[in-house]
Amino acid sequence: RKQGHCAYQCEYHLVIVSKYRRQILNDGSFEYFKKIMGQVRESLPEIRILTMNHDKDHIHLHLSIPPKMRVSDVVRTIKSISGRMLKKKFEYMRK
């Protein structure tokens, strides 16, 4: 990918794990997570989601993040938005 004066290929594999590795993720909650990631893309348009997959206790994200953005800021944004919205929609995730 290109920015104003550079070309880059910064790809990151992010694993988001549920608290205490509890097996709380199913297909319905993962579909809602995909919708949430669409909203995250609106707030961070420079990132690109390459692949997304899940298991019962974690989610895999393969992201492309430009070098002008801090990886920690992107991860914080993804986790805060998705955690808040998932807990609001699925009551059992709060317990």
Model description:
This protein has two helices and three strands; from the N terminus they run βαββα. By secondary structure, it is an alpha+beta fold. α1 (27-43) packs across α2 (71-89). The longest helix has 19 residues, at 71-89.
Mean pLDDT rating: 93
Order of helices and strands: EHEEH
Low-confidence stretches: none
Distance between the termini: 42 Å
- Report the total helices: 2
Number of strands: 3
- Strand order, biggest sheet? 1-3-2
From the spread of the alpha carbons, the general shape counts as elongated
Structural class by helix and strand composition: alpha+beta
Report the sheet-strand fraction: 15-25%
Estimate the helix proportion, in percent: 25-40%
Rg for CA atoms: 14 Å
Largest sheet, if any?
A: 3 strands, antiparallel
